[in-house]
Write a structure and sequence with these properties.
2 domains; rRNA processing; Ribosomal RNA small subunit methyltransferase E; six-stranded parallel sheet; Alpha/beta knot; five-stranded mixed sheet; tRNA_m1G_MTases_N; alpha/beta; S-adenosyl-L-methionine; 6 helices; Ribosomal Protein L25, Chain P; elongated
Length: 251
């Protein structure tokens, strides 16, 4: 869709709709889109619509639907469980996560996390995710989950995943993350530790719970770099004509 895109929550979707807040200001005051013009709306749950602007005010914009389509979620779904750290550039990562088609982002409290994960973190991510979706046209927003109970919560949350991947720099004799591991149909969870690294307790529990250890190379990567790299490999592998069988044992 080559139209200017705006976000409308799914519960507000309809034939005639109203944008307010930041989305309305962006349409009417920044882009100065006039009544009669067409724009695109996405709801973050797979729906894209073509709407005509009926009335554009400073605080609200009224629109009418001309057509809509639904894009199903990809079969190869990736979740990144990203440990909380003050040093992580979450805004950068959130936008890249949408661009690369992440199905979910789990923020978890690591034993070596710098600072305390707040329940408000989920809401804070929403604007960054929406910005990324509007930029790239992805109609699916990743679902954000805050896991304040540390690695124990993470293990429980990942129990039903098809594949569980543990990228960790301090390893020998483990395979590199490759297209034969990433991008498989079903749900894959990639767990990324905090800037302070995993604790031995966390590593023991993750390994015991079926997370497959992999390497991302010889360099120590920042959290957001490692997370983005995992999503990039997953997305690329999922686009291959025929995904090869998974090397790691299915848990």
């Amino acid at each position: 869709m080559s139209l200017a895109l705006f976000y409308l929550p799914p519960e507000h979707w309809g034939h005639e709709v109203c944008l307010d807040g930041q989305e309305a200001r962006h349409l009417s005051q920044v882009l100065r889109i006039a009544p009669g013009s067409e724009v695109g709306l996405l709801d973050g749950r797979g729906r894209l619509g073509r709407f005509v602007v009926l009335k554009a005010g400073k605080k609200t914009v009224n629109l009418e639907c001309r057509s809509e389509e639904f894009l199903p979620q990809p079969e190869a779904r990736a979740v990144v469980a990203l440990a909380y750290s003050k040093a992580v550039r979450r805004g950068f990562f959130m936008e890249k996560a949408v661009e690369l088609g992440a199905a979910g982002i789990w923020l978890w409290q690591g034993d070596h996390s710098q600072g305390k994960l707040s329940a408000a973190a989920q809401e804070a991510c929403q604007g960054q995710l929406v910005a990324g979706a509007k930029q790239c046209g992805n109609p699916w927003l990743p679902e954000v989950c805050v896991l304040g109970g540390g690695v124990d919560d993470l293990v429980r949350q990942a129990a039903e995943a098809d594949y569980r991947i543990l990228p960790w720099e301090a390893q020998d004799a483990v395979p590199m993350l490759s297209p034969t591991m990433a991008g498989q149909r079903g749900l894959t969870v990639y767990v990324i530790g905090p800037e302070g690294g995993f604790s031995q307790r966390e590593l023991a529990l993750l390994t015991k719970s079926g997370f497959c250890a992999v390497s991302l190379g010889t360099r120590v990567l920042r959290c957001e770099t490692a997370a983005t790299l995992c999503l990039g490999i997953h997305w690329w592998a999922s686009q291959l004509p025929e995904a090869p069988p998974h090397e790691a044992e299915r848990s």
